[in-house]
Write the structure tokens for this entry.
Amino acid sequence: ETGVTQTPRHLVMGMTNKKSLKCEQHLGHNAMYWYKQSAKKPLELMFVYSLEERVENNSVPSRFSPECPNSSHLFLHLHTLQPEDSALYLCASSQVGGSYGYTFGSGTRLTVV
Amino acid sequence: GENVEQHPSTLSVQEGDSAVIKCTYSDSASNYFPWYKQELGKRPQLIIDIRSNVGEKKDQRIAVTLNKTAKHFSLHITETQPEDSAVYFCAASPDSSYKLIFGSGTRLLVRP
């Protein structure tokens, strides 16, 4: 493991379900991120947490709800999703002002049926 | 906010040839420019990065150049090998290692 762990790796959910994605980092970083990766699209920044405070929400629909209970854990709560929300959801962490860029998790492949 | 454009979207080269991927950014305040490689089914991994106080950086077969005036930066891979086949993403940030904005990616295929 690279230090950022995401669970589950794969998730299939119906449009009326509620589920959560989990991310955990063991690197002592002070910022964590959720990105959405769809086919043939850039990595889209969804949410940024710095020192456990949400500092950015890039016009993400309210059916996505992040939670950062501490500096090591990040969640993405999902409810009433749409099929177009199917994508790879990547968590990343970094040390703001540091020298090593992001470390990504392996992602959760989400399919909404 | 920052916007990063990346070209080409796909690139096919013969093994041993060089490959060049180019990115432009919009925010003149950006000062950190990493490149990530994502192999099929795997997470993006940092392969090289450059900061705005440097014009060029090299690490074995890969190099990155930065032109701050023109606001573009490029990834150069020499002596390409089949294992270089992957999707490559450029990114930019005005605040080192924080809130990276990514390009759309380049799918590189190295033909044996």
About this structure: Chain B touches chain A through 22 residues (CB under 8 Å).
